[in-house]
Specification:
With about 300 residues, this protein is an alpha/beta fold. It is built from 10 helices and 9 strands. The protein folds into 2 domains: about 170 residues, 3-Layer(aba) Sandwich (Rossmann fold), CATH 3.40.50; about 90 residues, Pantoate--beta-alanine Ligase, Chain: A,domain 2, CATH 3.30.1300.10. Strands 1-4-3-2-5-6 form a 6-stranded parallel β-sheet, with helices on both faces. Strand 3, helix 3 and strand 4 form a beta-alpha-beta unit. Bound molecules: adenosine monophosphate. Adenosine monophosphate binds next to helix 2 and strand 5.
């Protein structure tokens, strides 16, 4: 007699869409009680292949996959793009259904942050470097929402993209410090063919800006090659990075572009004993802010 496969071979189109946090929590608890592992991919939607790569990885490593779509107001500053952030829930739902995930969680703001909500998570110094200097409160918003989502879902593993490198450092710090029992899995950055890191915000770029944005990956790759070849000082490489990016006229300003210790996010003057360094950039092109990074192996 063939074995009865109760799960996850559950036929097509059984994706659940949940909007209520308490129901999300109950659903996940039931899966966990049955001994199923849960892989969780938090997103803000407008899904592209970068997001889908995390979901595929989660599928390959877990019995159940949950993705969330939530444009988290806490992580946007007052002059940032919360209102205009792309919201394409129907398109996203189709993509997630095609991938065969089990649950999409699309909570309302009012249920995530009901009246009286007043508890926030601050992951300390790693939140204040790099993007933290230009987006005050951003990582406090990220850490708070991720903690809430991890508490609602209790995933075995949660998947984040290296594209948002500092975010992965903040989340790892938070889960360690608060004893959150979820493995944090960091996945490679998915790029367009010309090197531009995929991002929901790339939708904001005009055709000219889109073409110009490739300078980021080119300039970082030059630094990466220089680091690996040796012979050029870190300060020289930093200068070259900034000057190559500045040559692109459509870049309005550079928030930062430099070389960092990937653990502490401190800018470095020399690589010393480090096995890896982080090359990271954040620029503005008109009203769009773009970030990207490379981890360079020095061994
Ligand atoms: P977001 O919707 O921008 O909040 O991103 C949700 C998750 O997808 C985060 O963990 C991001 O780091 C990840 N992500 C975004 N863009 C990429 C990319 N190009 N490659 C890999 N992961 C990505």
């Amino acid at each position: 007699m063939p074995a009865v496969i109760e799960y996850p071979d559950k036929g097509e189109d059984t994706m659940e869409l949940i909007r209520i946090p308490r129901i999300m929590q109950d659903t996940c608890r039931k899966h966990l009680q049955k001994g199923r592992s849960i892989g969780f991919v938090p997103t803000m939607g407008a899904l592209h292949d970068g997001h889908l790569s995390l979901i595929r990885r989660a599928k390959s490593e877990n019995d159940i996959v949950v993705a969330s779509i939530f444009v988290n107001p806490l992580q946007f500053g007052p002059s940032e793009d919360f209102a205009s952030y792309p919201r394409v829930i129907d398109e996203d739902t189709i993509k997630l259904r095609e991938l065969g995930i089990d649950v999409i969680f699309i909570p309302d703001n009012s249920l995530m942050y009901p009246p009286g909500f007043s508890t926030y998570i601050d992951a300390g110094p790693v939140s204040e470097k790099l993007c933290g200097q230009f987006r005050p409160g951003h990582f406090r918003g990220v850490a708070t929402v991720v903690a809430k989502l991890l508490n609602l879902i209790s995933p075995t593993r949660a998947y984040f993209g290296r594209k948002d490198f500092q975010q992965t450092v903040v989340i790892r710090r938070m889960t360690r410090d608060l004893d959150i029992n979820t493995e944090i899995v960091v996945c490679p950055t998915i790029r367009e063919e010309d090197g531009l890191a995929m991002s929901s915000r790339n939708r904001y770029l005009s055709a000219g800006e889109r073409a110009a944005a490739t300078v980021l990956f080119r300039a970082m790759s030059t630094v990466s090659d220089g680091l690996q070849a040796g012979g050029t000082s870190i300060s020289e490489l930093k200068k070259n990075l900034i000057s190559e990016i500045s040559k692109e006229g459509l870049i309005t300003s550079i928030d930062y572009a430099s070389i960092y210790n990937p653990e502490t996010l401190e800018e470095i003057k020399e690589s010393g004993q480090l096995k890896e360094v982080l090359v990271a950039v954040a620029v503005r092109m008109g009203k769009t802010r773009l970030i990207d990074n490379l981890i360079v192996n020095l061994t």
